Amino acid sequence: MRVPFLYRAYVALTMLLVPFMARFTVRKLMKAGEPAHRAHETLGHATADRAEGTLIWFHAASVGESLSVLALIGRMGAALPHAHFLITSGTATSAKLIAQRMPPRCVHQFAPLDAPGPLKRFLKHWRPDAAIFVESELWPQMLRRTRSSGAAMALVNARLSERSLRSWGKRPRLAAYVLDVFDLILTQNDAMAEAMVRIHAPAPRVARGQNLKSLSGPLPQDEDVIFSARAALGHRPVWIAASTHAGEEAIVLDAHKTLRETHADLHLILIPRHPERGPQVVQHIADTGMEFTRRSRAEEPGKAVYLADTLGELGNWYALSDIVFLGGSLLPIGGHNPFEVAQAGATILSGNHVFNFAETFSAMEATGGARIVADADDLAARIDTLLRDTPTRTKAVEAAKRFASAETGKLDTIAARLINALELA
Hints:
Elements: H1 5-31, H2 36-39, E1 55-59, H3 63-68, H4 70-79, E2 84-89, H5 92-100, E3 106-110, H6 116-126, E4 130-134, H7 140-148, E5 152-158, H8 162-169, H9 172-179, E6 184-187, H10 190-198, E7 206-208, H11 223-233, E8 238-244, H12 249-259, E9 267-272, H13 278-288, E10 292-294, E11 305-307, H14 314-318, E12 323-326, H15 338-344, E13 347-350, H16 358-367, E14 370-372, H17 376-388, H18 390-408, H19 410-421
Parallel strand pairs: 1-2, 1-4, 2-3, 4-5, 5-6, 6-7, 8-9, 8-12, 9-11, 10-11, 12-13, 13-14
């Protein structure tokens, strides 16, 4: 396929900009607490050795994307006992969470910049036999240079925003050139499969897959932390508001204050999506007049509100209640993964902005494992019902568990499909 002019222009531009991109990226990672040698992985300088034998590279930019593939790596690792895995991501947060849940025979590196020098160094060192890109990371040079290295390639969990689809649609030759690298493209749903073909993905290699975020493994738990928290809470009823974003904590706290008028000893565990927002959330709690304690200060729960403003402990808090509200959904953010909650043994409440998990929420709501709420009053009313009506709550929890159990088997199908398409067996 002839190289489009836009691709050549893009390569030339990145060669000019790479010193500035490098300085910004390295500083950002170091500011987030990463040591200098690890931050320089973004320039293609590896900090780990390549294992002998087959190496399968997974690239996932965000925290959610990174964690979504860990269970898939585990299944592929079981099917390919001699293979090794490399996972790359772009943020310090994703690196920390991946480190906590790393599958066997897997190493993490920060992704190289999409520029000639970093990519040449990266590919020369790692020499991947196969490369699997996750969701929406379509860096032109990364894709084309990986293909030129001889690696088989797949795009999984494919999901592009409407803006991205329009942008690629305006550049049909570039889109076709970039997307032609993939041996297999698995989308999240039928609509996205059709959209990928419209922007010139090779139709015979495009198929509907599954939203990997809905198939992730159980969250890690620390039994000592859970035991201590349960001891501090005693027999008090508890509900959880997890992965909340700016603008949502005030709504959640309003609902909690209403609930405490009839459930005086009710306790809320509030878990902001980004722990660094802790001081801002503290101000919201203080404005309500309710007493609170904070995990980041090593305090135990026991007041009206417990602010769990630390990273990587969701599994601990999900173990403390069978009622969980998932944030990122009262505002047009897209929602968060209900599958993890269901696996933990809780029923799920969510706002109606769940377009990132539309199919999952629709199916869970149909089974009774999840419920969509509109606002603070609706949230308070639903939690009140679940607290008062034990049979209803038990039925909802069991429905969520059954849904999670039924979905898990689909991961083996996706793993087998990738192994076959990339000729890894």
